[in-house]
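Quiz preparation item.
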């Protein structure tokens, strides 16, 4: 099942404030060596007090629109994958829609923990495939630093803040660019392995529970490798491809050991796997669009390349997708340049 939707713009935003492993050594019983060896993370970004999931998402969205060469007014739908929204409502996507001047767009959030961006991308692609939308802005943005328990060394070393965004639009017939296959899965029976309370969670002894990340890291780790590899294998097969056809994998950036285990099991060499977990840690829904924007900026993608996304997170939830890279620039621009070449 190929969906005629292509990514035509990418953007990312990370806060200025860098928190190094050495800084964490001063607050919890840990060492930079332990964090690097067990996770691959060297530093992460932390949102400034005035920054929010929507403000970071808006900056990434503006950059994605610029990369596509379009304005907010040309967007039909804004979807934000996040598990750290500005508030319970309105949707964080509505704040982004307003800030970018997407005056003709609908807007809603998707929460599938770290699979929020992939879930949003899958949803946006269906809107385009059915003809309900021409251009969808999909944002992955998180302010995890506000729900991290900074006294828990088992989790506080892992997470960071940031945002990434893509413009998704109808594919140009005869040009590269499509969503070749996708898979989304959930096993809610394992919710207790990774969760955060919220303001509507049951009261305990009449008291509201704090919103903090609670995780059984070892159990999540074991599941993560299986979920990433099985779903990646399935989407590659569903696309009628083999691992050799994948030019670049852009996996969820949670832990370097999970990424290398995935690379080993799939037989996909690490030089075809994008990694930036060392610089940002786990930014949940934002990891894949941040990494994709960086891969594009570094010239790691060319039109026609097959790109693999794979993610996992709280739910438990997991998913994967294979796309054909189109190159950035909206089809309005692609069509104009084709017309110019034809006239030349
Ligand atoms: N510094 C030093 N020691 C630590 C730290 C730390 N920061 N954290 C844990 N330890 C200790 C533990 O207490 C334990 O000590 P013990 O043996 O005395 O009990 C020891 O290190 C080993 O602990 P493990 O949990 O077995 O360590 P592991 O190698 O599994 O690494 C980690 C822990 C990094 C959390 C790993 O399990 C992991 O990455 N799990 C996956 C987590 C993940 O990706 N979650 C994100 C999901 S995305 C989402 O939806 C938000």
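Solution:
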């Amino acid at each position: 099942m190929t969906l005629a939707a292509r990514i035509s713009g990418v953007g990312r935003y990370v806060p200025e404030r860098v928190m190094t492993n050495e800084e964490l050594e001063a607050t919890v019983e840990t060492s930079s060596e332990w964090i690097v060896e067990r996770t691959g993370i060297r530093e992460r970004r932390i949102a400034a007090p005035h920054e929010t999931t929507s403000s970071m998402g808006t900056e990434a969205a503006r950059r994605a629109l610029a990369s596509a060469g379009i304005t907010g007014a040309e967007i039909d739908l804004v979807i934000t994958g996040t598990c750290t929204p500005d508030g319970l409502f309105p949707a964080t996507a509505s704040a982004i829609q307003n800030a970018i001047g997407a005056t003709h767009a609908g807007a809603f959030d998707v929460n599938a923990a770290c699979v929020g961006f992939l879930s949003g991308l899958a949803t946006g692609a269906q809107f385009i495939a059915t003809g309900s939308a021409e251009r969808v802005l999909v944002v992955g943005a998180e302010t995890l630093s506000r729900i991290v328990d900074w006294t828990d060394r088992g989790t506080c070393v892992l997470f960071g803040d940031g945002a990434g965004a893509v413009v998704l639009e109808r594919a140009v017939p005869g040009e590269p660019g499509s969503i070749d296959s996708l898979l989304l899965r959930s096993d809610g029976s394992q919710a207790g392995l990774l969760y955060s309370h919220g303001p509507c969670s049951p009261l305990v002894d009449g008291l509201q529970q704090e919103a903090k990340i609670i995780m059984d890291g070892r159990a999540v780790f074991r599941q993560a490798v299986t979920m990433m590899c099985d779903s990646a294998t399935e989407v590659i097969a569903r696309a009628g491809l083999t691992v050799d056809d994948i030019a670049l994998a852009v996996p969820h950036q949670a832990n370097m050991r999970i990424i290398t285990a995935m690379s080993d099991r799939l037989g996909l060499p690490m030089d075809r796997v994008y990694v930036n977990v060392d610089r940002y840690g786990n930014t949940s829904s934002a990891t894949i669009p941040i990494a994709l924007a960086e891969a594009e900026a570094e010239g790691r993608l060319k039109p026609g390349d097959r790109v693999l996304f794979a993610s996992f997170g709280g739910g438990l939830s997991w998913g994967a997708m294979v796309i054909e890279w189109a190159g950035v620039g909206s089809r309005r621009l692609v069509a104009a340049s084709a017309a110019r070449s034809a006239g030349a």
